[in-house]
Amino acid sequence: MKQRHRARRLALQGLCCLDVQGAKVTDLVDLFLTDSRESDATIAAARTFIRQTVCAMDEIDAVLARHAHNWDLGRLAVVDRNILRLAVWELRENMAPFKVVLSEAMRLAKEYSTAESPRFVNGILDAIEKELISRDTEDTKNV
User: Fold this and answer.
1) What is the CATH number of the domain that holds 120?
2) Are 96 and 119 in contact (CB under 8 A)?
3) Is the CB of residue 54 less than 8 Å from the CB of residue 12?
4) Burial letters 87-108, b for 16+ CB under 10 A, else e
């Protein structure tokens, strides 16, 4: 459990760097991960989280845009935006149960963002989970 949280923390930091500075710093993010003094498994998990989240960024941002009512994604705090991106990727890929993803996202928000961020992250992810449940229910009906 701690290993996955540590991997999420590293991934969040890497995603924030890439968000602010662009793909040109990919090598520096990789060096940051390597120098993190985390286990090889934690670093590998963080790399996977980053790579897969970045690969699905357009789809993830579309999901976030639907649920971040009255918020332009570009105006969200960098940390909050990337906590949400990572969480949405995990939800879409069924990497962990919703409660685990939500708990981890809120924990990251408490660690790295503002006092209001956990509540904001919770609200957005709750709305996204309802959409995913609704979609899964529709898929089941159509089978």
Assistant:
1) 1.10.940.10
2) no
3) no
4) bbbbbbeebbebeebbebbbbb
| Cβ–Cβ < 8 Å for 128, 89 | no
Q: How close are the terminal C-alpha atoms of the chain, in Å?
A: 35
List, in sequence order, the alpha helices (H) in the chain. 2-21, 26-34, 40-55, 57-67, 78-92, 98-112, 117-141
Structure tokens of 31? 């060096």
C-alpha 72, offset from chain centre: 17
Q: Are 113 and 78 in contact (CB under 8 A)?
A: no
Let me know how long the chain is: 143
Looking at the structure of the chain, the number of domains it has is 1
Q: In whole angstroms, what is the distance from residue 137 CA to residue 114 CA?
A: 35
Instruction: Express each pLDDT in 55-108 by its tens digit.
Output: 999 999 999 999 887 778 888 999 999 999 999 999 999 889 999 999 999 999
Its pTM stands at 0.91
Q: Is the Cβ–Cβ distance between 12 and 82 less than 8 Å?
A: yes
